[in-house]
Design goal:
about 35% helix
């Protein structure tokens, strides 16, 4: 779990709940984690006693300064009689991680306090062949390998330093050397290395002193040194103030009217926009989640672009009036789309194809199959049309029309199941089963209608008719094959078993909200109403925690077989979206507002939202922050405000 990420689109630094740096991504967000999730330790020595801040002796409060991407961290150790306040950020436009540290003596006597900061770089995601050395020219400590340099410095200048071997035979690292308050390591070490620096502070009774600490990330020695010199010349405090001000202006640039929303919802809305920004690479890739802890249970991670997540996030950013970020995503989609008109499961931050488990060969039928989840293709077009419809940037979408829009729409028209006329089988949005899914079908309808709108925009009426006809055929086929009169709701899917044989899967799934969300059926259509009623009846968690599960008997990350399934933030917010969609008067919005309040209450103190929450104690589960959770909150807040505004304009009470 990552409680307080800070980043600028090229350098992302994340912290765990013990206030340890755990991930350092550079030069792409989510790509090249130069720590592999191993912690950078932070320790304090006072009067002969030593303690790492991850220990139980410390009380930790991990938050952000309001409306910024500058942390506000308070560390208190009653046994040591020391209180520390830290503010961390990544410079808004330079690849510099910067921290201000204020150390307070809580006792009525003069004391010698020493702060130790440890670095466990594993550059290019492995510990072999790194070098750490003290550079007399820059008077800084540098870790490097090939084209990656990390320069470490402080002001006032650190008093002691040590480089050494780590994770090699009996050598644990220089952090162990710090525990007696004295560092005695070498000036240069190669191989599997770490480093530690120490800052010595003489504190009078009830005194406070501060220092600044930074890590400059570059692709060469000269670049890292240039950034270091820039901090020294410009002054660290000015850098911190500038970045704090930049993000406060950025998140407030649209002067949104929040009507009757509570301060807690407004704060989470702004925090969500800021956190979403940290999870997006400057090249346009929107990463699902940058939390390396997941590798311990999955041997892989979430630091990938799924175009499904990306489309939802980009749409939320468009709704919130941050179109320039969304445009980078759409532009990247135009570069990475498959020549046959679809997107593969996921991509790295630089646009290369990432790891995946969607097979292109069916071992049962001994035949090829499409290794895709079609919603990822459809949602890009759906979201892109929402973007154009709001901002009317004809030149931008024109550049994407042939290569992206037409190519994907032509694929979706042809990729149909002959018997049902529905989209052909593919993987579902949860990526755990293959078939014809209601959510996928609904997204394809949304994507095809978007493509029809674009075709009409560019005067290709014949093409527009083909896309519109295909969308309408799928809607009718959904009505015929995917709604169960017996169950009183849409089916989750038609489940396929390696051949043309399929069975109806009536599992209640939160993703069935797609039947109205993408415009297939009206929100007040009897089929939608009964389906959403089933979702609320079957998936609302019946504990004090509450929330909506993904689907019936979902076992993913569940606490125990006897416990309810975990609640998901996105699924719970989808229910709010439905309540907003069917509201006829202001009082009908109460149920949606309750879910927004529920979400704000369940966020971490920092404002971070994970993927899931434990239904028994409300603890966050799986990865955090999940970009999709935050973007869904943003989108739902805006939907609420838009509906409220409509009521006001019409004089509806």
């Amino acid at each position: 779990m990552r409680d307080i990420p800070v980043g600028n689109g090229s350098l992302l630094v994340t912290f765990d709940d013990k206030y340890q740096i755990r991930d350092v991504y550079f030069p792409h967000v989510g790509q090249e984690n130069h720590t592999e999730g191993f912690p950078f330790r932070f320790g304090v020595w006072a009067d002969g006693e030593f303690s790492w801040v991850f220990s139980g002796d410390w009380k930790r409060e991990l938050c952000y300064l309001k409306e910024t991407l500058v942390t506000d961290v308070k560390l208190t150790n009653e046994n040591l009689g020391v209180e520390i306040v830290c503010n961390d950020t990544v410079a808004s436009h330079e690849n510099i991680f910067l921290r201000r540290v204020r150390v307070s003596n809580m006792r009525d006597e003069r004391r010698d306090v020493r702060v130790f900061l440890h670095h466990d770089f594993r550059i290019y995601e492995n510990k072999v062949g790194d070098t750490a050395f003290y550079d007399p020219e820059s008077q800084a400590l540098i870790h490097y390998k090939k084209h990656r340099y990390f320069l470490i410095n402080t002001e006032p200048h650190f008093d002691v330093f040590s480089t050494g071997r780590k994770a090699f035979r009996s050598e644990e690292g220089t952090w162990r050397d710090a525990e007696d308050g004295i560092l005695s390591g070498g000036a240069k070490t190669e191989g599997s290395v770490d480093s530690t620096i120490g800052i010595h502070l003489q504190l009078e009774a009830q005194d406070t002193k501060e220092f600044f600490y930074w890590i400059a990330a570059g692709t060469s020695y000269n670049e890292a040194v240039r950034l270091n010199n820039h901090v020294l010349e410009r002054r660290p405090q000015e850098y911190l103030d500038y970045t704090e001000n930049y993000w406060r202006v950025w998140v407030n640039k649209n002067d949104t009217d929040f009507a009757d929303l509570s301060p807690e919802i407004i704060e989470l809305y702004k925090r969500s926009l800021l956190i979403v920004n940290t999870q997006i690479d400057r090249g346009g890739a929107i990463l699902a989640a940058n939390d390396s802890d997941v590798t311990e249970r999955a041997t892989d991670h979430y630091s990938y672009l799924w175009t499904r997540d990306g489309a939802f996030v980009a749409n939320a950013l468009d709704l919130a009036d941050f179109p320039s970020i969304a445009r980078k995503f759409y532009r990247l989609c135009g570069e990475i789309v498959h020549e046959n008109g679809y997107f593969l499961q996921k991509y790295n931050a630089d646009g290369t194809v990432a790891s995946g488990w969607h097979t292109a060969w069916d071992t049962l039928s001994k035949s090829p199959q499409m290794p895709i989840q079609e919603d990822e293709t459809a949602l890009v077009l759906w979201s892109l049309w929402q973007h154009y419809d709001k901002y009317r940037d004809i030149e931008f979408v024109h550049r994407l029309y042939r290569n992206l829009i037409v190519r994907c729409a032509d694929f979706m028209v042809k990729f149909r199941h002959i018997e049902t006329n529905l989209p052909a089988p593919s993987w579902n949005l949860w990526e755990d089963r293959r078939g014809i899914h209601t959510f996928t079908c609904a997204s394809v309808v949304g994507g095809l209608r978007a493509a029809a709108n674009f075709a009409g925009l560019f005067g290709e009426t014949e093409r527009a008719a083909i896309y519109e006809t295909a969308a309408n055929e799928i809607v009718e086929a959904m009505r015929e094959h995917l709604y169960s009169e017996e169950k009183g709701c849409f089916l989750r899917s038609l489940q396929f078993y390696g051949d043309e044989h399929y069975e109806a899967d009536a599992t209640v799934d939160a993703s069935l909200f797609g039947a109205f969300y993408f415009g297939c059926f009206a929100p007040d259509d009897a089929m939608v109403v009964s389906t959403m009623r089933k979702i609320e009846e079957k998936l609302w968690i019946d504990t004090e925690i509450g929330g909506v599960a993904r689907f019936e008997n979902d076992s993913y990350m569940r606490v125990s077989p006897d416990a309810p399934s975990n609640a998901w933030f996105i699924c719970t917010l989808w229910l709010a979206d439905y309540r907003i969609a069917v509201a006829k008067k202001k009082k009908d919005l109460k149920g949606a507002l309750e879910i927004l309040e529920w979400t704000a209450k369940r966020a971490l103190p920092s404002g971070v939202l994970a993927e899931q929450i434990n239904p028994l104690d409300g603890e966050h589960a799986s990865v955090s922050p999940l970009t999709w959770s935050h973007s869904t909150f943003v989108a739902t807040v805006i939907s609420y405000l838009q509906k409220l505004r409509q009521f006001d304009e019409k004089g509806v009470k």
